[in-house]
From TrEMBL:
Keywords: Heme, Iron, Membrane, Metal-binding, Monooxygenase, Oxidoreductase, Transmembrane, Transmembrane helix
Cofactor dependence: heme
Residues that hold heme according to the record: C436
Entry annotated with the keyword Heme: yes
Any one GO molecular-function label of the UniProt entry: heme binding
Species classification: Eukaryota, Fungi, Dikarya, Basidiomycota, Agaricomycotina
Recorded family membership: Belongs to the cytochrome P450 family.
Coiled-coil spans in chain: none
InterPro entries in UniProt: Cyt_P450, Cyt_P450_CS, Cyt_P450_E_grp-I, Cyt_P450_sf
Metal-binding is among the record's keywords: yes
TM region(s), chain numbering: 12-33
Name of the molecule in the record: Cytochrome P450
Amino acid sequence: MATSTVLPEGLSSSTVLLVLTLGYVYFLAWTFGETKKIPPNAKLVKIPSFSRWTVLPAQSKYYADIVRAPDKHLSSQQAVNEFLQAELTLHTDEIGDNIQIPVIVNTLNRSLGDLVPLVHDEAVLAFDEAFPFDDSEGKSEDGWKSFKISRPIMSIVGRVSNRILVGLPLCRNETYINTNIDFAVEVVVMSHVLLAVPAFIRNFVNKLISPIPKRVKQSTAFIQPLIDERKEKEETFGEGYEKPFDFLSWLMDTARKYNKPDRDVILRMMSTNFGSIHTTSLTFTNAMLTLLAHPQYIEPIREECDRCVQEEGWTKAAMDKMVFLDSFMKESQRVDVVAAILGNRLAISDFTLKLSSDGDTSTDSSSSEGVFIPKGTMIAANLVDAHFDKDVWSGKDPDTFDPYRFMKIQKETGRQWVITTTSPNILTFGHGRHACPGRYLAAQEMKLMMAYLVMKYDMKLPGSEKAAPQRPRNLWIGNNSMPDPRVKVLLKRRSEASSGRL
């Protein structure tokens, strides 16, 4: 399997490091000395981030008021454009109208019952190819084999996602999947590189070193023939043409409705792949490593998954019944943060932000305090504070990993707390009206992948037979946290895995 380029082609790691270092020095040159202690009555604070100051709520409860602010004042899209340099990396100058969002919300999410069996069908082959056992290289006499998991997990996520996005046979084309994986990595890398240099030269730097135009050409070479073929069949068979049941078909219909060119469809497919592969891979890999660090929970999860699949097959109904697996992965979302700051909003006009005294979003705004927010202010959530807030998780020890946490909360409160639930204190998928619209499919994919993993394989961390397993530490790159791509795990195919349930 091809390895990720990780860094933009033609740019050495030392050059990238130099650019990032110079950019950070440039930023510190005008921010040094401005940081002050937080007053005890503060509701908002500003902190230096990689390329600018960011305003955070001093307490996580106030983020609820931030996400309720009107888009005409606080823009999620403009914030994405800045911190991902999305006009240059994701071409939001062309596709920033987000007309694909209703397709995800109204068509894709409502089709999950039909899509989950397709995800399983693809996962079976994807796991076999990502973790091969046919050769004896690296395999012990008792069947254990060591694998780096970062790239294989991305490959599996890429395949199962694209079974829904473009369908067969393209979802099984290794070069196409690797193109999307490389694109997902390069968007993040290039956003850091571009933020590290002054704004007035970002366009020049992007044209000089960005590998993304090449990725667009590569994706076009795969998707354009598919679009042409489908258009030709539609013209030939008319109303008798049965369109493929995938996201590409729905995007083509949307493009026709808004008179968009084929390039628009291709760029939206790439953007959707970025969202699918990047966050889903990080979240799943985090959960897998956390499970291996708490091996006492493998068997309870395995038993639940096996029972649900026996009752419902590999369906959405089975995934919905896996309540312990859901609680485990939700707790991993809480503990294994993917960033220190998330949920950004950019002030596109001067306005007064109403902050309720207790963070209660139902509070009448007339009784709320107002804080003046100047145009150009970046506001975000402190993910670490939100996910470990001792006031919110009072009596539940937020510093301790508890896979039963959300099952207990549901039982105590009667409120649904599942992997897709968002709140000001669970922000992996965002919160409010701009929460990730694709999280429902991502959750089904991750739960199905984890269920298949524990049912087909025994697994452990290297050295865990000699000492209590310790979760491998994540890497921090700027504001972002990610599993160390060098981490290896030991897998062994289970003898029970030959059952028809897989």
